[in-house]
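Project standup — Tuesday

K.O.: blocked on the structure for the chain from last sprint. Re-posting the sequence here as requested.
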Amino acid sequence: MLIPDPWHELRNISPARIALGRAGGSLPTRELLDFALAHSRARDAVQMPFDVQRMAQEIRDLGCEVTLVTTLATTRKAYLTRPDWGRGLAPESVDPLQRIRTSKPGVSPAFDLVIVVSDGLSALAADRQVVPLLRSLLPRLVEQNWSLAPIVVAPFARVALQDAVGQILDCRLALSLLGERPGLNSPDSLGAYFVHEPLVGKTDADRNCVSNIRPEGLPIEPAAQTLYRLLTAARDRRVSGVALKDDTPALLEPREKGLPTDSHG
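H.V.: unblocked you, prediction finished:
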């Protein structure tokens, strides 16, 4: 009697490389080539150039003001080998941000939120996901009268650049949208990181992250809903990071989708 291989059922509900089969003691040629292709796509996503001007124009087309800044990392190689340079503003980028802040005298904080857009470790993710996410998120914020700073576009930026940008602009919150480190199944995954009261020196414990934003991961609309909910909670409660948790029930329950559940109930 032929007993079905249960691993093949799991392939229907997971992108993980399981139940690949074998040819002798090796992987089948098809699976080996598929792995090599995925690896190449991930490397290409890291090395892909970021079209800053096109990104800025697409954001302006949404009706937003845009400010371009640069970090201390001026090349892709420098960005990859010196993460600290991606966290710091280039000196020439400080004055434009200070001028934006001084345009709102007597108001503190000057803005509720600044959004920083960057290629991060995947320009492909920024190219595909940033504008659709902004198109969904921004109307929610505007409807609730959020005071928004001009959107900052910064190539070669790390997450912590939000600290310097938010501090100079005197913002209640700073949100970074940038490409995450590509996985073998996700070369275009966008990460959204935010911090309350951005100041240089904040740590990862002070930040919240909504990750894997892409059609095959967390789609745009649920991502925008989650971000809006968390940003609102951070503003109202004046906290972020480990002090702020998303207690919303999961959108997909394992039993509803036929997924494996805990054997104890």
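K.O.: great, moving the ticket to review. Strands lie at 66-68, 111-120, 151-153, 171-179, 190-196, 207-213. The domain at 44-243 is CATH 3.40.50.11240 (Rossmann fold).
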